Amino acid sequence: MSIFVPNKVYLRGILLHYFIQQKSAAEAHSILVQTYDNNALSDTTCRDWFRRFKNNDFELEDKERSGAPKKFEDKELEQLLDEDSSQTLSELGKILQVDESTVSNITGDRYRLQLMRLSRALKEKRPLYAQRHDKVILFHDNARPHVAKPVKTYLETLKWEVLPHPPYSPDIAPSDFHLF
């Protein structure tokens, strides 16, 4: 058995070969499945490529798309947050010309770094905490940076107890019940 795993451009080249041989998209798909099993292109993809070939589009590489994510440096975001930390994700996304979710992931990483600094500060300023491994009880809302995957993972490694915050329930805020 071969360990060769074809990439999509290679498979598109094979489709072009079958197109030139005047085979149908269904026949080409059947041959690909027989030859490459799970690594074959789907029937729909084969039909789409045959349609492109019929329209004299023989470019096998992916075309540039307008929806491709724009790259930016974290420093740009840090600078914007240092100037005004109250900016919303959508405002930051518009300024940086990226999707809101991209900014959310980065601000989640930034929040994780804040938690790391907090953990270190606790160990330095409260030596008994480090010796006795006292449990920290953390309460924060469900803002995207607070529930981002890197933050959740880091909090699990710290073994801090995170109090659940009821979503969209300002009428039952824990601060109203003398939690603080």
TrEMBL record:
Pfam families: HTH_48. GO terms for molecular function: nucleic acid binding. Residues 8-57 form the Mos1 transposase HTH domain. This is MOS1T transposase. It comes from Pseudoatta argentina.
